[in-house]
Structure formats: C-alpha cells, structure tokens
Amino acid sequence: MTRRPPRNIPPSRGFTLIEVLVALMIVAMGLAALMLAVSGTARTSGYLRDKTLAQWMALNRLTEVRLNLNQFGQNTDTGEINFANRTWHYDTRYFDTSIATMKRVVVRVYAGDAKTKGNPLAESTGFLGSAVATPGSSNSADWTLGSTLAPPPGNTAPPGTPGAAPIGSTPVPPSGSGLTPTPLPTPAPTGTP
C-alpha cells in the first residue's frame, strides 16, 4: 500500500457562538416589534367596535326619546342596556334652547354598568319639541320666482358669473327709496322640443 501525501485542507469555517447569539437577538427584537404592532392593531379594532356599538345605542336612545317610548325626566335620565353580550349605561340630558318649544337632547353612552366611571364612548345630540312653524307654511313661498335680493349698485357682471343678478330675479330697491320693483321678463324658450 502506498500512502498518499497529505493535502493541505483548509479548516472548515462556520458561525461562531457570538455570531449566532447576535443573529438571535436581532430576530427576537424584530419579533417583539411585530407583536407590539399586532397587539396595537387588535386593541384599536376592539376600541372601534365598542365606539360603533355605543354610537348605535346613542342614536337608538335619541329615537326612543323622540318617539317618547320612555318617559323622560326634567333634566336628566339614566339607564342600563344589555347589548352585544355586554352591559352599557347611558346618560340622557335635556337642555333648553332659544326656542321655547324645543329642547336639545344629549345622549352619552358608557361601557359597563352605571357604577363604572370613565369617559363616554359615544355622544349624540338631537332636538325634541313641537313644530317651529305651522304645518304646510313652507309651501306658501313660491320658490320658482328666483332671488328677491337686489344686486349691488353698479352690478354689470354678465349673468352666470359670481356677483351677477340671477336670471329672472326681481331686484329690490333699498328701503325708503319709494320705488316699486318691477319683475324682469321671463326669457322665452330658444329651442323647439
């Protein structure tokens, strides 16, 4: 048997323990940042779900007040609701307005029962009261006549431009001038049907 001469084999090169630990630390920090982002997204999604449900309940409460399904007190009304397998509570407040027959109604909805303190998740505002005008009185105005506002003095802008008098409008002279406004003629149709 003959022996072969030994060859110079370079030593195999691998990762050292320090390099492996540094790589693991980088991966661990990346995964931790990813978990924080995912948990933040889940928290935000839960908050938006609760806020949406609370807004629905506030609008439902406003509708109940408008329909007078539940008698309301003078200035405030509170209650609890079981909705979406959770307990919620609301606070309805009534405020006077400048119109004697109307009240402003503010409904706030909170998560948890009435003993739970915290900020409201939703707030809705509505108005309750009798009519401001007699029914059908809005039909007494003829809305087809156009504007009754007078154009500014010296208004020479062509029709259709900002500041121009609307076509077919009746200019109103300043009060105390003694002049009676005359309606402008209605333009004749230009085309045939």
Keyword list:
alpha+beta; four-stranded antiparallel beta sheet; 1 helix; 193 residues; 26% helix; Pantoate--beta-alanine Ligase, Chain: A,domain 2; 19% strand
What does this structure look like?
The chain has 193 residues and is α+β, with helices and mostly antiparallel strands. The protein has a domain at 48-129: GSPII I/J protein-like (Pantoate--beta-alanine Ligase, Chain: A,domain 2), CATH 3.30.1300.30. Helix content is 26%, strand content 19%. It is built from 1 helix and 4 strands. The chain has a 4-stranded antiparallel sheet with strand order 1-2-3-4. A hairpin with a 5-residue loop joins strand 2 and strand 3 (102-111). The chain is elongated, with a radius of gyration of 38 Å.
Secondary structure: elements and pairs:
Blueprint: H1 17-67, E1 76-83, E2 86-96, E3 102-111, E4 122-129
Antiparallel strand pairs: 1-2, 2-3, 3-4
- Series of secondary-structure elements, N-terminal to C-terminal: HEEEE
- Name of the CATH first level of the domain at 48-129: Alpha Beta
Helix proportion: 25-40%
Number of strands: 4
Radius of gyration: 38 Å
Tell me which oligomeric state these chains represent. Answer: single chain
In short:
The chain is an alpha+beta fold. The chain has one helix spanning 17-67; strands spanning 76-83, 86-96, 102-111, 122-129.
